[in-house]
TrEMBL record:
Species classification: Bacteria, Pseudomonadati, Pseudomonadota, Gammaproteobacteria, Cellvibrionales
Assembly information from the UniProt record: Monomer.
Gene name, Swiss-Prot/TrEMBL: aroK
Recorded GO CC terms: cytosol
InterPro entries in alphabetical order: P-loop_NTPase (IPR027417), Shikimate/glucono_kinase (IPR031322), Shikimate_kinase/TSH1 (IPR000623)
Cofactor note: Binds 1 Mg(2+) ion per subunit.
Enzyme class: transferase
UniProt name for this protein: Shikimate kinase
The keyword Metal-binding is annotated on this UniProt entry: yes
Any one GO molecular function term: magnesium ion binding
Binding-site positions, ATP: 14-19
Binding site for Mg(2+): 18
Essential cofactor(s): Mg(2+)
GO BP term, pick one: amino acid biosynthetic process
Length: 168
């Protein structure tokens, strides 16, 4: 079986980065990293607590600190949706290997996010989800080495689709 270097998943919250990521890590034998969990361990607080106490800009700063310092070798990195606001983080991820954009429609994302109302977003609470989607979409597109549709199919089929595209 082919061996892979580091693969990073980016995309909006609800696109499936964490769910697909762990499945893809199993398929590729890569070390699984969800940067949201590293942020929480480093901060000693949940993402929601960080947002509530310090605000979204602070969460983005913590996210960048994590992205610029964690080991990236031989890993499947599931990022948080706000990672694309840090050019330095994205540069480091891209230097480590392909960045895969899990693209999903606004309606898919809204349905998935509605199932988890306590999921915070590292953007101004006054900004609508639609506006966040519009703001971030060009950034995901800009950094993507590969774009994969994440609206249809299960997380397993999305993971297998990424594997097959990266194996070509
Ligand atoms: N391909 C998929 N089809 C259906 N549901 C999915 C799919 N991928 C993820 N989900 C569901 O969507 C929700 C958000 O997934 P998650 O992996 O946490 O996304 P992200 O890490 O991108 O925010 C979860 O409830 C997950 O089970
Ligand atoms: O898009 C965002 O602003 C965020 C997405 C979350 O991760 P997921 O994209 O894995 O849901 C998490 O990093 C934080 O709540 C902020
Ligand atoms: Mg996630």
């Amino acid at each position: 079986m082919a061996s892979f270097g580091t693969i990073s998943l980016v995309g909006m919250p609800g696109a499936g980065k964490s769910t697909v990521g762990v499945l893809l890590a199993k398929l590729t034998r890569l070390r699984f990293v969800d940067t949201d969990l590293d942020i929480q361990v480093r901060a000693g607080a949940t993402l929601q607590e960080i947002l509530d106490q310090y605000g979204y800009r602070h969460l983005r700063q913590l996210e960048e600190q994590v992205l610029l310092t964690i080991p990236l070798d031989h890993a499947l990195i599931s990022t948080g949706g706000s990672v694309v606001y840090s050019a330095a983080s994205m540069q480091r991820l891209k230097a480590a290997g392909p960045v895969v954009y899990l693209r999903a429609s606004l309606s898919t994302l809204e349905q998935r996010i509605a199932g988890a109302p306590l999921r915070g977003i590292a953007s101004d609470t006054a900004q609508s989800f639609e506006s966040v989607y519009a703001e971030r979409t060009p950034l995901y597109e800009k950094y993507a080495d590969l774009t994969v549709g994440a609206d249809t199919g299960t997380a397993e089929t999305v993971a297998m689709g990424i594997l097959s595209e990266l194996s070509r």
